[in-house]
Amino acid sequence: MDLTRTPAWTALKTERKAWNALHLRDLFKKDKQRFERFSLALDDEFLLDYSKNLIRPQTLRLLLKLAKESALVPLRDAMFAGERINLTEGRAVLHTALRNRSERPVEVDGRDVMPDVREMLARMRAFADRVRTGKWKGYSGKPITDVVNIGIGGSDLGPAMACLALKPYGGNLRAHFVSNVDPSHLYDTLEDLDPATTLFIVASKTFTTQETLLNAQAARAWLLSNLPSPPGTSPKGAGRDEVAVPSEARDGPKVHRRAGDEGATHPVAKHFVAVSTNEAAVRAFGIDPANMFGFWDWVGGRYSLWSAIGLPIALYIGMDAFEEMLEGAFDLDEHFRTAPLEANMPVLLGLLGLWYNNFWDSQAYAVLPYEQRLARFPAYLQQLDMESSGKGVQRDGKPVKASTGPIVFGEPGSNGQHAFYQLIHQGAKLIPCDFLAGRESHNDVNGQHAVLLSNFLAQTEALMRGKTAVEAEAELVRAGMARRELKALLPHKVFPGNRPSNSILYRKLTPRTLGRLIALYEHKVFVQAALWNINAYDQWGVELGKQLAQVLLPELTGAPAKVGSHDASTEGLIARLRAA
Ligand code: F6P
After folding, report:
1. For this structure, is 418 an active site residue?
2. pLDDT recorded at residue 260
3. Is residue 205 in contact with ligand 1, taking CB distance under 6 Å?
4. I want to staple 301 with a disulfide (CB 3.0 to 4.6 A). Which of 41, 117, 154, 331 is the partner?
5. If we measure between CA atoms, which residue out of 196, 263, 204, 254 comes closest to residue 223?
6. Whose C-alpha lies nearest to ligand 1, atom 6?
């Protein structure tokens, strides 16, 4: 359905024009109830304040009308019901089943998937418990101290973001993440690790991703080259780098039996586990399926941290805390599924996203956590939002009629304040912002948390109010500036204000809070995609580069390609690289 042809869309265009004469500071002055009117609490722990947005009651009414005229509600219900709404891949979209904490069955083609989900969680728990308590021993008989997740995109960003966010809940294990095919990433990670106490998780939904498989092969070679022999066995060369790389490290090993036994077995079985949907490829890589945690094609890569892809999180914070995260996400699922549209956080956030994207021509939006441990949250959201919304055709294949996904960026405040906020305050672009902040800190020292929060509040207020020429002039006069100087400086001191932001205020960054935050954004992305009528669950756009890289690799390392097989730029760069 083409929303741009609906009466609500036309009315919103008129509403946008009306906004040329409106300013948020006036609306706040006139309406003392604006905060109450435009904020929404899930409970005491989780609040969305959307009052500093470029909306008034009629704007919101029209946006909600648009939502009702769209396929949002039927599509949402179809998602929760396990229908194959990922049209281009013919798959259901059921990350919500992974955190379904109710007794309700969730069916795909008439089959309840919940028993499989519960079994997966039980396996994760058993494994996490064994590793965390030291019962799972490495090949040399030592307990595991370091977990290295090798994966990329959805098989990296979510777990890496969550482990950093939940550091206060971390146990004795250290968690590391290697994603980039740049060998320096693995090299730097392994530099300080002891192979005898390191466990690798090879995480790949498809188990065909080049970056992940290459890093996994390199990690396996490192392990086999450097691992000391178990006590009581004939030494293979006790020290690091003294053991020859076994042929299987070079060629790919056979499948190892007796994986998980505490007795002498192959090192790979004691130091490698896989998370994937592709058992055959895991087996071909040389990881015993007994050491494999599976999931299903109805879990999209960027929605997969709730599945066994979340294993590094479970190992790091323990399964109880991981399940608390699931509970948090379930809170948001229930809210999204049942709350009326006008009191539904993801719906409101999605509508606001569309409002700026399509009616204010805003190209980007910033995610600004006032929480250092959410440092990777913007990167996580980049994949979630941009891989989902970066589409140019509608669900039926016809070109989209309105601009789709925004450019997502962000950094933790207050670092961002000293880097790119200038553009948001006084630049020529409108950049809506989401501010995230916790009422409590895990580590308040020296009253610094209050300083952090005062900065968060100051930024949202400054963006909204701005500073008028009259105010700026009065300030300069008070500072004793001479008239002529003042006149020249004044335009630079004026802030337009009227720059929109949401504030998401939670009590404390707990596993439950994090689960809520992630699910909130997942559903916001869903809402936008439903309104734009695009398929948020495929990512064909990343394929072309992958295909070309396959062609280019042999041309860099082997015989040169025929002249004229590429454009002049690519050929010039290849020549330079080959000459190096
Ligand atoms: O190339 C993009 C992508 O397909 C992402 O959607 C996905 O999260 C990532 O690659 C990794 O894929 P896999 O988990 O199959 O290795």
Report:
1. yes
2. 41
3. yes
4. 154
5. 196
6. 301
